[in-house]
Design a protein that fits this description.
Length: 68
């Protein structure tokens, strides 16, 4: 997964510090500050993993129903 730092996104100023945004390529969210992009992408991977696990369980259940 590639992290894209976009310079045309608005920077947020908090306590005289400028926080630049990074845009998530997967969901399009602006992440402030850009250092939080890695945890954001980790949540995407965790969600995808849980969806795949749930889908496998569902496929297994359907397969058992067909056999019986």
């Amino acid at each position: 997964m590639r992290t894209v730092l976009v310079t045309n996104l608005v920077a947020i100023s908090i306590a005289n510090k400028k926080l630049h945004a990074a845009k998530c390529a997967e969901c399009g969210a602006k992440i402030y500050p850009s250092s939080l992009m890695k945890p954001h992408l980790a949540r995407h991977r965790l969600k995808q993993k849980s969806l795949i696990t749930e889908l496998r369980e569902l496929q297994h259940s359907i397969e058992r129903m067909r056999i019986a």
